[in-house]
Amino acid sequence: MMLNIDTGHSDSWVRCHDCDLVSCSQPTYFNHHNSASYNKLPCGKCSWPARCRTSECTLQSRYSNGNFAHSVLALETFTLQIQNGGGDDDEPREKKFQNVPVGCSYADVGFHDIDGSLALSRGKRSFYTFLKENYSVNKFSYFLIDRRVGLDGVSADLIFGESEVSRDIFYTPMIDDYYHPGQDYGVVVTGIEVQGQKLAETSFPIKMVIDSGATTTDLPDPIYIALEKLFLGYANAMGWGSPYRILGRRPCYKVIEDDIADSPTVTFTFNGSDAKMLLLPYSIWSYVPDVKAVCFGFGSASKNGGVNIIGNIFQQHTRIVIDQTMGNHRIGFDPSSC
Fold first, then answer.
1. How are beta strands 206-210 and 157-160 bridged, if at all?
2. How far apart are CA 14 and CA 12, in angstroms?
3. Which of 6, 22, 91, 203 has its CA 20 to 30 A from that of 180?
4. Distance, CA of 115 to chain centre
5. CA atoms within a 13 Å half-sphere pointing along the CA-CB vector of 241
6. What is the pTM of this model?
7. How far, in Å, CA of 217 to CA of 209, rounded?
8. Could you tell me how far CA 110 lies from the centroid of its own chain?
9. Separation between Cα atoms, residue 43 and residue 67, nearest integer Å
């Protein structure tokens, strides 16, 4: 099954109902009736935002883009491949993790290419929290699938534990006082540059959350408007034509995917020494194959209640490191290891 890596949610879920090819690219689902290790979570252990209904602990997972999944919460056994040292001679082995909280979805909308979601926030029911509390795992890292490659036979890379992934990682402190304190991965952004020129906006610094389950990077209106104005000008200079809206996203342009490479770059500066993240064109624009257009990977935070989010278009081509080892709460970025 193909699961989404989601650092912005606390509840994992898998599709437990049949799905036709119109709704899903791969009509696969988890048949919990055939699993001897599947156990519904009793109502006595049902906690917010889940609710007990008809003797079942149910959950409605809603996402900022309008997608949702309705699930019955359960405990199930997950099997992962474990590699201790990471060397060439270290053969992976399977390890079973019992009583992992997971939702069994009986209705979901908007997840055409995936079969569920693996929750990795710091929330109490996330898979990361399960590993942290039961196996003392205090660090993980991931890099996401390049949208240009597609999902067929390709998997993102997800590493739990102390494996050294690169020496080129730069870190910024993880803040704990924004949006959902103690649950999200917050950072402080101190500035934005476009082609090496600082964005002329005085709203910095701003707090943001790292959310691999969100698509766009959402910014406060003054910053977003200034950034959009610049890129509208660049798009016009590149001969992309008039912008329009696709599926709630704007600006979008009817150009081929290869045209993205001509776009300027963006650099985010974070709190911390030399903490800068260079975004290349394919982490700024995304190609929408169904309509053969490219769309801006940034948006206004006002559309989701004012929450500033670093989404998954931004995160492509960069390994993200969540590090809580030895009381050290920090977030790393490494574009060299992908």
1. unpaired
2. 7
3. 203
4. 15
5. 9
6. 0.89
7. 10
8. 15
9. 26
Say yes or no to pLDDT of 171 above 80: yes
| Listed residue (282, 275, 280) closest to 331, CA to CA | 275
Q: Which residues contact 227 (CB under 8 A, 6 or more apart)?
A: 192, 194, 199, 219, 266, 298
pLDDT bucket at 88, cuts 50 / 70 / 90? low
Please determine, for residue 87, whether its predicted confidence score (pLDDT) is greater than 90: no
Residue 22 burial by Cβ neighbours in a 10 Å radius (0-12, 13-18, 19+): exposed
| Residue 165 tokens, joined | 């992934």
Q: In which order are the strands placed within the sheet that holds 249-253?
A: 244-246, 249-253, 293-296, 285-288
Judged against a pLDDT cut of 70, whether residue 182 lies above it is answered with yes
Contact 301, 309 (CB under 8 A): yes
Residue with tokens 């150009």: 255
Q: Is the separation of the CB atoms in 5 and 120 below 8 Å?
A: yes
Sign (positive/negative) of CA torsion 35, 37, 42, 48?
A: negative
Q: What is the mean pLDDT of residues 209-225?
A: 95
Concatenated DSSP letters of 213-233: T-SSEEE-HHHHHHHHHHHHH
The answer on pLDDT for 44 being more than 70 is: yes
Taking the C-alpha atoms of residue 280 and residue 99, their distance in angstroms, rounded to an integer, is 41
- Cβ neighbours for 28, distance < 8 A, ≥ 6 positions apart: 1, 15, 19, 115
* Beta carbons of 163 and 319 less than 8 angstroms apart: no
Cβ atoms of 324 and 286 closer than 8 Å: no
Phi, psi for residue 257 in degrees, rounded to 5: -60, -35
Residue that wins the pLDDT comparison between 263 and 155: 263
Cα 192 to chain center, whole Å? 21
